[in-house]
Amino acid sequence: MNTYSPRLARLIEALRKLPGVGPKSAQRMAFHLLDRDRRAAEQLGLALNEALSGIGRCPSCRMFCEDAACRYCSPARRAAGQLCVVETPADLMAIDAATSYRGRYFVLMGRLSPLDGVGPEELGLAALQALLDDGSVQEMIVATNPTVEGEATAYYLAEMGKAAGIKVSRIAHGVPMGGELEYVDGGTLAHALSGRTPV
User: Fold this and answer.
1) Where are the domains of the chain?
2) How far apart are CA 194 and CA 177, in angstroms?
3) Does domain 6-54 have CATH number 1.10.8.420?
């Protein structure tokens, strides 16, 4: 059994919180930063502190932003009358980079998962309802991941849109079942978005 000094143990444990990082990888990163690249470790710490203090969320779309004016909520995007609802900021970035879609977004920051304690409040669906009710949205595009939770979330969102009298569409399933939008190639993602179907 490895016994680390308290500070080293806290560093390794902090690194383990990153997705895909297990105990051995966390240990390897910690040792590398401490032994071989302390300057990079200082830069990492500074960049992380700056990001935590300077990056917030847009009150309208919930995407990460640094300024009061969110680039995804511009008047031109609003004029398009479309609202694409995604699970994560990474999904937003994937769609925006790979497609010609230039409407607005709404980032759920998750998906409905009652077993994990994630319900409508945690996803900001009251804010989404306000957007649907303000008259600026003619079409809501549901772009949740094709997982069990993503499909349940899509159904819930479709019911919200229909109740508000808004056209609701779902991205086409060129995306593999169980896949994550963040990792889908640009061509497949563009095809899935352009081939969306009414819900």
Assistant:
1) 6-54, 67-198
2) 18
3) yes
Beta strand 64-65 pairing with 56-57: antiparallel
Q: Cα 101 to chain center, whole Å?
A: 17
CATH code that applies to domain 67-198? 3.40.1360.10
**Could you tell me the pTM of the whole model?**
0.78
Cα separation, 27 vs 16, whole angstroms: 9
CA 171 to chain centre: 16
Place of tokens 């995804």: 72
Per-residue pLDDT of the chain (199 residues; tens, 9 = 90+): 568 899 999 999 999 999 999 999 999 999 999 998 889 889 999 999 999 999 999 999 999 999 877 889 988 898 889 999 999 999 999 999 999 999 999 999 999 998 888 888 999 999 999 999 998 999 999 999 988 899 899 999 999 999 999 999 998 777 777 778 888 888 778 767 877 777 7
Is the distance from CB of 193 to CB of 181 less than 8 angstroms? no
